[in-house]
Design goal:
Length: 404
């Protein structure tokens, strides 16, 4: 354990685990601790985290509202790619880690800290995401991961340490929480304990942002989403900031039971895990974005994006947001969005989000070309004969060879 560390910036939630980490850093490293608490739209009051840090003797405390930056600079760029990990997961936890890491490193520079620290366990993906991002932003930064160093490997040991150092332990922490939750403006993620057996249905209490689709309103909700340059900019004609827009979509989607996902996924560290996710606003946004792209993207560009998307999503999931290949893909994706402008009407009804209509001033759709009625002559039916013959040539050759 290195002893040349004088000051550490800790990603601090104010909960039991990170409060124990705070004190453990002081004891194990004999160092000063700076706390950083980010408001990413998790829906919790963060002032108690400041008060708890003060109570534990912390002098430099950072509590910051990063909701707009989170959606504008991280969520929206990801949604331009229609990113889904393993075909279904909207990467709500993964995309939050690069921003938290960015501020950890920036605060370390601002305060003259030698290291940063996080509360991710040694089994999960988050330790990888935090540390890869920090090293990409500052190759010389030291990262302390207490869960990989200490011997507090059980809830009992954690509580004993807390009590021995006068750290308040909430009454509910003396028993085991039924599952763990990570939340931000894009989603909630629940895993562990009652969710560890993928053969058992998730209890309804797991869901916090969405009503049961069967209990959602019997009348559909229609929402019009406006896009400019590939990003959503308005709802029902009202211009909104990125965070305000996602908040509104969360309310609309959640009220209609949209965005639930029960997934067994492949973690980067090598194991499978079961998680239950709620991404109501993101689910609606994905449907609407793909709809406006269907009007405005050339076929070749659209198909290339779809081919690259799984790789892009995997990079985010695995913690490579600040890697050169992700930035290269982002440049390509952003270039494709220049004419992704217009409006999409989406129907929200009992767990589903479906496209009703889409319009764009930059549409590539031509009624004259697709009509069954007589068109302008831009498309000659006879041209298809030669087109088919050329494409059939290799198939005929292959079939003749196989028939011999």
């Amino acid at each position: 354990m290195a002893k040349d560390i004088n000051k550490v910036v800790l990603a601090y939630s104010g909960g039991l685990d990170t409060s124990v980490i705070l004190k453990w850093l002081q004891v194990a490293y004999d160092c000063e601790v700076v706390t950083f608490t980010a408001d990413l739209g998790q829906g919790e009051e963060l002032e108690p985290a400041r008060q708890k840090a003060q109570m534990l003797g912390i002098k430099e405390i950072f509590v910051e509202d990063l909701r707009e930056e989170f959606v504008r600079d991280f969520v929206f760029p990801m949604f331009r790619a229609n990113a889904l990990y393993e075909g279904v997961y909207l990467l709500g936890t993964s995309i939050a880690r690069p921003l938290i890491s960015k501020r950890l490193v920036e605060i370390a520079h601002e305060t003259g800290a030698d290291a940063v620290s996080h509360g991710a366990t040694g089994k999960g993906n988050d330790q990888v995401r935090f540390e890869l991002a920090c090293y990409a932003l500052d190759p010389g930064i030291k990262v302390i991961a207490p869960w990989r160093e200490w011997d507090l490997q059980s809830r009992t040991r954690l509580i004993e340490f807390a009590q021995s150092h006068q750290i308040p332990v909430p009454k509910d922490k003396f028993g085991e929480a039924p599952f763990s939750v990570d939340a931000n403006l894009l989603h909630t993620s629940s895993e562990g304990k009652v969710l560890e057996d993928p053969g058992q249905a998730a209890p309804e209490m797991v869901y916090q942002r969405t009503v049961d689709p069967e209990k959602a309103p019997d009348r559909p909700t229609f929402v019009t989403i406006g896009f400019a340059g590939g990003d959503a900019v308005s709802i029902d004609g009202e211009q909104l900031s990125p965070a305000a827009l996602l908040t509104r979509l969360n309310e609309l989607g959640g009220a209609n039971g949209i965005g639930r996902l029960d997934l067994v996924e492949n973690r980067f560290v090598g194991m499978k895990s079961r998680g239950v996710y709620e991404t109501p606003g993101g689910t609606v946004l994905l449907v609407a974005h793909r709809a406006i792209e269907s009007l405005t993207l050339d076929r070749g560009a659209a198909h290339l994006k779809d081919e690259l998307m799984p790789r892009y999503a995997e990079l985010i999931y695995n913690g490579f947001w600040y890697a050169p290949e992700r930035e290269m893909l982002q440049a390509l994706i952003d270039r494709s969005q220049e004419h992704v402008n217009g409006e999409v009407v989406v129907k929200l009804y009992k767990g589903s989000a479906s496209v009703v209509s889409r319009t764009s001033p930059d549409s590539l759709y031509s009624e004259d070309l697709v009509t069954f009625e007589e068109g302008s002559g831009a498309y000659d039916h006879h041209d298809a004969e030669g087109f088919i013959r050329l494409n059939a040539l290799r198939l005929k050759t292959w079939a003749r060879r196989n028939a011999r």
